[in-house]
Design brief:
About 55% of the residues lie in helices and about 20% in strands. By secondary structure, the chain is an alpha+beta fold. A four-stranded antiparallel beta sheet has the order 1-2-4-3, sandwiched between helices. About 30% of the residues are buried.
Length: about 160
């Protein structure tokens, strides 16, 4: 990839988030994520036959180089949760970056939902639009995100 890159202090990005529209924040996040995903996919010899571990290793490496934190994944049944530890990104950036990185690397559209964010880590659900919508509705109604993921895995039948 011949695209030129620059290092930007997080404080400058934080200032940008506060001064532009949510659509502009999402567009920039998608651009950052796409670059990460494209570089990760280029490091995997055959994306179709690559193991999840091989792919996550490359994606985590590119995320670290980009300065967005230490990336790992958790499986919650069929649900995939991307974990970013020590990420300097504001919450508004997390979902667009994660979604775009995976879309660029895998060539599949995904939906994302920020499940949790604290000083040390963030968890982002990666699923279909329907799955993200269902989990989002459950969380909004007061269901803990872990319980919402369990419901999703069970087909939404658990009360």
């Amino acid at each position: 990839m011949d695209e030129r890159l620059v290092l930007v202090p997080c404080s400058a990005l934080d200032d940008l988030v506060l001064s532009v529209s949510p659509e502009a924040v999402e567009a920039l996040g998608m651009s950052i994520g796409a670059a990460i995903g494209t570089r990760a996919a280029a490091r995997v010899s055959d994306m179709q036959s690559a193991s999840v571990e091989e792919f996550v290793t490359q994606l985590a490496g590119e995320a670290a180089i980009a300065g967005i934190g230490s990336l790992s994944v958790e499986r919650w049944g069929r649900a995939l949760v991307v974990v970013l530890d020590r990420s300097p990104l504001a919450s508004a950036w997390l979902c667009p970056v994660v979604a775009s990185a995976l879309q660029a690397a895998c060539g599949r559209k995904v939906a994302t939902l920020l499940l949790s964010r604290d000083a040390d880590s963030a968890r982002v659900l990666v699923s279909s639009e329907r799955g993200v919508g269902r989990v989002g509705d459950w969380v909004a109604s007061g269901v803990a995100w872990g319980d919402a993921l369990a419901r999703l895995h069970m087909g939404g039948t658990r009360g």
